[in-house]
Amino acid sequence: MLPIAERWFESRRIDDDVTLLWEPHVVPLMRCNIWHVRGRDRDLVIDTGMGVASLREAARHLFGKSVTAVATHTHIDHIGGHHEFEHTLVHEIEADNLRHPKDRGALLGSILGPDFARKMAAWGYPFEGDLITAIPFAGYNAATYALKDSVVTETVVEGDVIDLGDRRFEVLHLPGHSPGSIGLWEAATGTLFSGDAIYDGPLLDEIGGADIPTYVRTMKRLRELPVNVVHAGHDPSFGRARLVELADAYLAKRA
Asked: How many domains, in total, are found in the chain?
């Protein structure tokens, strides 16, 4: 029996406009960084986690105006809460998978099976058992977990601009981890929300939909980006020096 979590989400204010939320009772492999970015005219929530519990309810104090839920890509750990938002944004290549996810997901090792654990261990994410270490409330049935369909209201491609009124983010198409992976780049501040294109952990480029030669091209592009800070889809944020180290390590691995 899994214990009941006191609360499902934790949060930390990064600066006046950016808040990080995460699900501490989801194992690190699937623990997505959920970014809330405050703008003058609308806010962004960049990725929404696993959808085990309601993100909208937990973070209602942050969502005081129009909110766009951005999917940096449509893997299950990034779009679980998108169905709770009236306005969503995703690259056009992966829009159908946000509307009707092909992989509805699972939380329990008994459903995922041993092959899943073996693959994850081989890719640098060993774990045993389930993808969660607690349940969000009494009576929650983890065996029935499944991603829900989401409405898609905005599709984007390379070069599109997301205007918050006082902040502008350019859409960078960063395929390799998935075909429609995107980053949000704010040139004025050197801020990149990178999704899973790059993060400070083992990068997954052999999963379904990934493509190594494409990922190499994306990594070369990222290496030249004049970032001040990268807020990634997993693990801690980092600066340009670490970006270069991570990119060089990946390129050396796949040389």
From this structure: 1
CB 176 within 8 A of CB 197: yes
3-state class of 199 per DSSP?
A: coil
Residue 159 structure tokens: 């070069």
Kindly tell me the sign of the dihedral angle through the C-alpha atoms of 126, 128, 132, 134: negative
The CATH number of residue 171's host domain is 3.60.15.10
Residue 2 maps to a domain: no
Strands 191-195 and 182-186: antiparallel
The DSSP output letter for 239 is -
C-alpha 85, offset from chain centre = 16
Helices (H), the chain: 55-58, 76-79, 95-99, 109-112, 114-122, 212-223, 240-253
Task: State which residues form the domain around 21.
Answer: 10-253
pTM for this structure? 0.97
Q: Give 2-45 pLDDT, tens digit per residue.
A: 999 999 999 999 999 999 999 999 999 899 999 999 999 999 99
DSSP assignment letter at 11: E
What Cα–Cα distance (Å) separates residue 229 from each residue in 32, 62, 177, 202, 244? 18, 22, 21, 19, 12
Taking the CA atoms of residue 39, residue 40, residue 41 and residue 46 in that order, the dihedral angle to the nearest 10 degrees is: 0
Q: If pLDDT is split at 50, 70 and 90, which confidence band does 158 have?
A: very high
**With helix as H, strand as E and coil as C, how does 42-71 read?**
CEEEECCCCCCCCHHHHCCCCCCCCEEEEE
The answer to whether the beta carbons of residues 156 and 98 sit under 8 Å apart is no
